[in-house]
């Protein structure tokens, strides 16, 4: 499997360009040198925050995607580092609070997202309404149905959870091996017997096939929302992939 950052072609090129500029520092004025150092520092910081978030929370079912609020990443990481005893609990509470409250400001995005999701905007609104009213028994299955249907329409063959569905994409966070593909593997786990214990992961097979009975809680519903945003980003990135590649290759040509 590729390293998580190998897919971020344009970012890696920018890092290489910065290194090249530093080699030419003698030809740059002090202000230009400072700008290069500042850009490098910011890029390193953002990359470090993303990698820390993925290593800490992806295994718990929290998606990383391109339109994610970077402030949320910072807050979750800060809470993890501040509270060593209950770091996971405290950090996840920050994520839960965001997807239970702040996410209201971004629901309208789905109206202008790819047609596979805008077509389901009415259902998406209903799922969010159930979520905000804490009717998780209704929001969770509906989110999972929306996700599967949208991906099925986009691929024209298979839903998100189907075996063989490739959810990678070129040069984007959501297309990395430890982003959407990782979530698919976790959420698609086999659930072969009836379970009455509380689950905190949106196990698609267990929930929709009636084997995981105690699924209706904020953890599962919030992680479904995180997944829905990741799906929206993935479809957008996959659609624009040929154009983005062509632009990248054109901009990479040496004059």
Provide the β-strand percentage band. under 5%
- Number-wise, the strands total 0
Q: What's the main sheet like? A: none
SS content category? mainly alpha
Helix tally?
A: 11
How confident overall, as mean pLDDT? 90
Number of domains: 1
Runs in which pLDDT lies below 50 for 5 or more consecutive residues are none
User: How would you spell out the order of helices and strands?
Assistant: HHHHHHHHHHH
Briefly characterize the structure.
This protein is mainly alpha-helical.
Name a few traits of the molecule.
single chain; 255 residues; mainly alpha
Describe the protein in words.
This protein is an all-alpha fold. The chain has helices at residues 9-23, 30-57, 70-82, 87-100, 115-118, 121-132, 136-155, 180-187, 204-208, 218-239, 241-251. The protein is globular, with a radius of gyration of 20 Å. The two termini are 35 Å apart. The mean pLDDT is 90.
């Amino acid at each position: 499997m590729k390293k998580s950052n190998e897919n971020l072609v344009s970012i890696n090129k920018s890092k290489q360009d910065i290194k090249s500029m530093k080699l030419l520092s003698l030809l740059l004025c002090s202000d230009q040198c400072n700008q290069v150092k500042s850009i490098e520092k910011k890029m390193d910081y953002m990359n470090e925050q993303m990698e820390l978030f993925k290593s800490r929370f992806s295994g718990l079912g929290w998606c990383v995607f391109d339109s994610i609020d970077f402030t949320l990443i910072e807050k979750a990481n800060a809470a993890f580092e501040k509270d060593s005893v209950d770091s996971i609990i405290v950090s996840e509470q920050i994520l839960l609070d965001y997807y239970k409250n702040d996410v209201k400001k971004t629901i309208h995005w789905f109206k202008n997202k790819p047609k596979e999701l805008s077509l389901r905007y009415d259902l998406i609104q209903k799922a969010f309404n159930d979520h905000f009213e804490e009717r998780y028994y209704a929001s969770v299955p509906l989110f999972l149905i929306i996700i599967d249907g949208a991906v099925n329409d986009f691929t024209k063959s298979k839903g998100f959870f189907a075996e063989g569905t490739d959810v990678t994409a070129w040069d984007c966070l959501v297309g990395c091996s430890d982003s959407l593909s990782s979530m698919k593997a976790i959420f698609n786990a086999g659930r072969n017997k009836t379970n009455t214990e509380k689950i905190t992961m949106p196990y698609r097979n267990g929930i929709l096939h009636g084997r995981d009975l105690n699924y209706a809680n904020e953890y599962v519903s919030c992680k479904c929302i995180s997944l829905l945003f990741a799906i929206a980003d993935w479809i957008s990135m996959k659609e624009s992939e040929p154009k983005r590649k062509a632009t990248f290759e054109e901009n990479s040509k040496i004059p």
